Amino acid sequence: MKGRSLVSTLLIALLGAMAGLFIYTRFFDRKVVVNQSAYEKQAVAESTKFVSLEGQGNPDLTFAAENTVHAVVHVKVKAKVDYDYNNPIYEFFYGQRGSGQREVQGYGSGVIISPDGFIVTNNHVIDEADEVEVTLNDKRTFTASIVGRDPGTDIALLKIKADNLPFIKFGNSDNVKLGEWVLAVGNPFNLTSTVTAGIISAKGRNIGMLNSNYSVESYLQTDAALNPGNSGGALVNTQGELIGITSAILSPSGAYAGNSFAVPTSIVAKVVSDLKQYGEVQRGVLGVEISDVNSEIADKENLSEVKGVYIQSVNSDGGAAVAGLAKGDIIMSINGEDVAASSELKEKINRFKPGDKVKVGYLHKGKQQTADVVLRNVDGGTGIVAPGSASAMIFGVNVSPVSKDVCEQYNINSGVMITSVSDGPFKSLGLGRGTILISINGQKVNSAADMKKASGGEKNLTSIEGFTSDGTYFKYLLKR
Known about the structure:
This protein is of the alpha+beta class. 25% of the residues lie in helices and 32% in strands. It has helices at residues 2-28, 30-57, 62-66, 88-94, 123-126, 265-278, 295-300, 319-322, 342-349, 404-410, 425-428, 448-454; strands spanning 72-85, 98-112, 118-122, 131-135, 141-143, 145-150, 155-159, 181-186, 194-205, 219-222, 234-236, 242-249, 260-264, 288-292, 309-314, 330-334, 337-338, 357-364, 367-374, 397-401, 416-421, 436-440, 443-444, 463-467, 473-477.
């Protein structure tokens, strides 16, 4: 009896527990169960959504890679450089220093842009090269000729004798957007082409790499990994179109550190076209010295935004002066397209040739104005510039022709003014920006081409005559 009673008691307890659980679930826990179900549904939805976004954030880059690697080449250069060596004992007896030549080598990358063998690379890759050798991705090697080069944009054009080559078509760098996926394709160590990926980090970057009064820096910035030797390689979009020529990295160590820069095709295409047609870039210039608008200028001019290009000075006989622009004016647009910074202005003007007319929108004493400006060439005219006569760095300086006003001021008939200075004999002599040169080796000069001719292609420098920036006359007699 006791056993039956115990079993009955357990059954009743079990039935009671089940009834209690049913009642709790039915009347008290319904809300909790419903909420948990909704949460689970939301979690599933979010999970599905996350997967979808992940798929969009990592596009298939194989098409772009496969269609570009074979058109990127390894560029190897050889050059002979002069050097002096100092032996005090030898000098004591013979009064002479020793000198000689040694061969140096360098390398970089290049991009085939046509099936008949035209190749784009950086000017700094082939600068001063005596020989240029190109190795294709299929290991074939060719000797390349230099069609032309442009230090102002750091772009050079090579040509090899070959046909039916793989090449990369030009894309439109103007349409590139921040965050867009890109590939950097280079051949830095002659290991066949190498591909890295990244996004567009910024546009219109000016990093001060090119030391020239007529330089044009408006780089595409990317975080695609680049290292020395990638210079001259391709930056392509996901369609496999060329949107830039990789040129520089910004790094404290000299190795990749997340900031890489490429010359956009909006600049490259113009340079390549000019070098093919004329052998020299036909660069139109406004005839102004400029800087970015800063907060101080914006406040002074009552600007609603800190953007635009401030005119620091105007060449008296330049296109801008003739059209009525003056010092203190602020350029806001070119042909109706806004310009927020000097790099943008230079990039837009770089698309035109001497003699072309552009519509400049600007502020003059707070009032909006427009003017049609006829662009000049680097020598002050509107005609085509012959190869070798454009302003370029010589003896470590860039120069531009002096204006009529300067000629009258110094009572001279011609001359050039130093516009920028880097290492070289002029810097060693303390001749800085603003120095006026009237003769080299006893020959009158009015352009960089005149300076090269007078010095035998920078091989001989025996005398320099001119005026320092404060108006002091000088004449240096040099011994080589």
